[in-house]
Amino acid sequence: MNERPDRSLAIGTLAVPYCRRTRLRIHLTSMETPTQEFEPLGLSPQLLAALSSLNYKQPTPIQERAIPAILFGKDVLGIAQTGSGKTAAYVLPILERTLEQKWPMANRHVPVLVLVPTRELAVQVEAVFQELINGLPERVKVAAVFGGVSINPQMIGMQGVQVLIATPGRLLDLIDSKAVHLSSVKMLVLDEADRMLDLGFQEEVDRLLALMPRKRQNLLFSATLNHAVDAITQLVLHKPEVIQVSDGPQEIVLIEQRAYRVSNERKGPFLRYLINSMDMQQVLVFTASSHSADHVADKLVKNGIEAKATHGKKSNHARQQALADFKAGKLRVLVTTDLLSRGIDIDHLPYVINYELPRSPKDYVHRIGRTGRAQRSGIAFSIITPEDQPHFKVIQKKMKQWVTLEGTDDVDLSGM
Ligand code: AMP
């Protein structure tokens, strides 16, 4: 189902004049040449076999550096985004150490804790663990817990858990109900620490840290380094190995950006025109609010384009279902807010459309970064009304990337 963007198709079918296109290179990996294989990193034959069954042939740069450091027992600060392979960079050595150490487990005392900011990320991280565990001769019990769903099954499920993936609020609820204890944590991961702080989880994280033993291994991953992340880094990490996956020529994540000037009343028809004329089969559309996401999805459906909206006001089940359908290529258009602009990895997503601009330039980068991942190209479209133009200029200035705004007055939208 995944449509790969094709330049010639785009030019042939879309009657909008393209004067100039801007290609944005988002660099996710380091300049260093990666090792050609996983063998030298210190993983056991059983994990190497699990990797090869997943067809992971070469470590990504963050994996190449983080795996040996974590196996060595060091604290790690990884500055890396989703798409860099950062999840497996900590999942692999955690599984290795869990199998090797056979930490004695008092009842409901988890040895490994992975803290994540959102339920979507919790589900995604759990899937990476499960994928690898499936290829192992020995079982490792992993559980993911998050809010928005009934707590009772989660309480029951804590028995014998070796790796717990949790959002901070729900974890505190489970601790308060004595369903789980953190006093035996040996390894702690803070994933997407920047997002965790942006979402205001500082206090919860502080409370959780106070419940853990002082002696433990800490791994902190963040897409950005800012003042707040720096502060938590100081608090949590002890002489960490700092791994920054920086700009490099080998990572070819290419995102082509296109922007169209469209009047307010032509926005809806233009969106449908864009989707139809490019024959987009899998596209993520961003709006500025939940209300608008619902409205845009309704309009698309009324006009015969299969679409669903997902946002913070939807039930947990509806959110997960919509995302799973979309990832599996069963849903053509997913309309969302900035809820999905970070962290969520969608394999080879070819198109992203900004139906409405985000307020922050950072969110713009995160939104368009949903496409063009894993060395594939992708196209990010922005629909810009005359009122949006000054704000779009601010975004471009912050990104130091300029996108030519194409006129659309001559595009025939009748029948859309
Ligand atoms: P992440 O940055 O952890 O969200 O991973 C991004 C994507 O890369 C996921 O779909 C992983 O399954 C995939 N991935 C991670 N490591 C490797 C690897 N060494 N080789 C191939 N794919 C990988």
Structure description:
Helix 14 links the parallel strand 13 and strand 14 (377-384). The two termini are 23 Å apart. The protein has 15 helices and 15 strands. The chain folds into two domains: 29-244, 3-Layer(aba) Sandwich (Rossmann fold), CATH 3.40.50.300; 253-407, P-loop containing nucleotide triphosphate hydrolases (Rossmann fold). By secondary structure, it is of the alpha/beta class. The strands form two sheets. Strands 1, 9, 10, 11, 12, 13, 14 and 15 form an eight-stranded mixed β-sheet that branches. Strands 4-5-3-6-7-2-8 form a seven-stranded parallel β-sheet, with helices on both faces. Helix 7 (168-176) crosses helix 9 (202-210). It binds adenosine monophosphate. The site of adenosine monophosphate (AMP) has 15 residues, from helix 4.
What CATH architecture label of the largest domain applies?
A: 3-Layer(aba) Sandwich
The SSE string, one letter per element, is HEHHEHEHEHEHEHHEHEEHEHEHEEHEHE
Oligomeric nature of the chains = single chain
How many domains is the backbone divided into?
A: 2
Tally of strands: 15
Count, helices: 15
Bin the helical content.
25-40%
Mean pLDDT comes to 85
The CATH homology group name of the largest domain: P-loop containing nucleotide triphosphate hydrolases
Top-tier CATH class of the largest domain:
Alpha Beta
